[in-house]
Amino acid sequence: MTDFDPITSLLGGVLIGLAVATLFLFNGRILGVSNITAEALSLRSSDRGWRLLFLAGLGLGGVLIHLSNPTLIGDSPRALPGLIIAGLLVGYGSALGRGCTSGHGICGISRLSLRSIVATAVFMSTGMLTVFVVNHMIGG
Fold first, then answer.
1. Among candidates 47, 77, 61, 46, which has minimal Cα distance to 15?
2. How far is the C-alpha of 18 from the C-alpha of 135, rounded, in Å?
3. Number of domains making up the chain
4. Range of 12's domain?
5. What is the spatial distance between Cα 55 and Cα 33, in angstroms, rounded to a whole number?
6. Which pLDDT value is given to residue 38?
7. Burial of 13 (0-12, 13-18, 19+ CB in 10 A)
8. Average pLDDT per 10 consecutive residues for the chain, totaling 140 residues
């Protein structure tokens, strides 16, 4: 991790905080990307519109960053099948934990939710253990 920049990291955190606050102020909703995605894809969702716009904005943000500075987001060091499996496992874990990093880690902890604090500690620990196992024991 040689490209760490504390100013860019701070700016990213501020932007995430603004997104959380904006969604809550204008929609009265907690920002949990896994729930927003699940409800956007649900056939019974009555408020699909804002959810689809939110998800489109996430994708558009990545595209705009890539267009403005193509070297900023590099290629993944992992192969596509591994990324797909990892994504499916993250989705399963989000459903199992009834929330994701954005819902529990950003919004839940800021509300001092004990459930979110425990969930965040569990998925951060699991993530660190997974990185250790893949990088040092399996040799990924």
1. 61
2. 34
3. 2
4. 1-74
5. 8
6. 84
7. exposed
8. 79 88 86 85 84 91 88 79 86 79 83 90 89 82
